[in-house]
Fold:
Amino acid sequence: MRIIVSTQNIHEHNVDCIALVVQQDALNTPQIEAIARAYLPDMPALLAHRNFTGKEGSVTVLTGQRDGRLVEIVVAGLGSAPSASIPLERYRRALGRIIRSMESRTCAALLLAVPDAALFGCDAATLAEQTSVALHMASYHFDEFITDTARKVKVPELVVLMGNQELATQQSAVDKGTVIAQAVNWCRHWIDMPPSNSTPTHLADHADDVARKYDLKIKRFDEHEVINMGMGGLAGVSAGSEQDCHFVILEYRCGDDAAPTVGFVGKGITFDSGGLSIKPAASMETMKDDMSGAAAVIAAMQVIGQLKPRVNIIGFTPLSENLPSGKATKPGDILRFYNGKTAEVKNTDAEGRLVLADALSYAVKNYKLDAIIDLATLTGACAHALGPFFTGMMSQHPAFAARVQESGDRTGDRVWPLPFDNDYKAAIKSPIADICNIGSGKYRAGAITAGFFLQNFVDDVPWVHLDIAGTAFEVPDIPYYRPDGATGVGVRLLVDLAMNWQQ
Ligand code: BES
Ligand code: MN
Ligand code: ZN
Structure:
């Protein structure tokens, strides 16, 4: 999909579909007037006849014509402003609804009447960027394994954005949004691919491609090197798998030696069967999504290589499968991590923290980091606590956590803090090793006790842990996602964090 900004009149474009968003009970706008005049004089009356008032979540499709050419007119409601302005997330979702409502028709070219940025309390550049992000994200579909061509999703090839004079200069903001959303969609693609087509080696190869294309430095350690470096967690999780594990590091340097350096770490379990503590069949169905953290980090690095923020960013991804076999790590085994600490493995299904322990230790030991953030589909407990709309955030560094929360609110990758109090630490004591890989039942709070496991590996570096178990896959009701696939959660947040690091 190509998105361009135009200053021509509405009727000068040869499109088959026109779309616009409206505020509730404010349907007599100059935009509607112009569209009605050019294509469908009865448009206001028809909308009234359908009781279309612009409610949040509503969408309706009319047909207009000009010079004998038919055009679909899609109108999506934004609802009314809760305070002074309407949240941008509502606009992103309205655009998602517009793209969805066109899937059943064939629309090659869409003209979108972009509303005034003032409606959302933002500037024209932000609105142009977010328009592009939402349109591209909504257009994502995973259909390369569907052979029935009738079932292939069709999306417009061209979108023309029309708005006021201020919007007209915003093509570069649109292009920035395209760079971000294309990476989000790559992230989703890597996750949606069947797990046997998306192994640690495949993902490491994608990281290689990203490094080559966007001029990032890459270090790629194979299983042999992982074992020799003393990464007993990653090696231990990989032991049961025929696939080699990898530890991949992508480095972006901004060119300023005085600039701060931030580490991004992503859990990359390309399939999580639970290992010998095997999962029940139903819980395993979606476990190809267990590399969503790593995919988000690689995708974010792809954007960072292009948008070039004024901060150094290092991405770390431990990549492995978690499978049972005669060589697999057993409950009762004790693993030794890169930083020398040991953990008793009581449950091989708590494997994410084992691979992250090595990645975090390696990051804080070998790089001078000003902050480190990890993303992991870490616990079912987090998914249960918060559901699909908020990522769980754990941190003891309020200033860093506040930045992450702001990036989440701005981009739509929303996070919510869980209490991260030292009282929970005792849950992961072990009588025979430094710590245990599952929390004692008495403490419940599985998301938080997993967070405290990770805390052993970040030294004193300001750290935020994001548990994306609930938000990475199969999120319902958000029209710019797909309800049965990956969301690409975290990419937008990480990019925003990097771009706004130096105010
Ligand atoms: N990958 C899972 C967590 C998960 C669950 C992600 C649901 C996405 C959706 C993780 O490795 C896991 O199995 N965690 C266990 C931990 C337990 C054994 C302490 C869990 O949550 O049950
Ligand atoms: Mn697991
Ligand atoms: Zn897992």
Observations:
- The pocket of BES (ligand 1) is lined by residues 272, 290, 347, 349-352, 377-381, 383, 438, 446, 469 (CB under 6 Å).
- The domain at 180-499 is CATH 3.40.630.10 (Aminopeptidase).
- The CA atoms of residues 248 and 440 lie 32 Å apart.
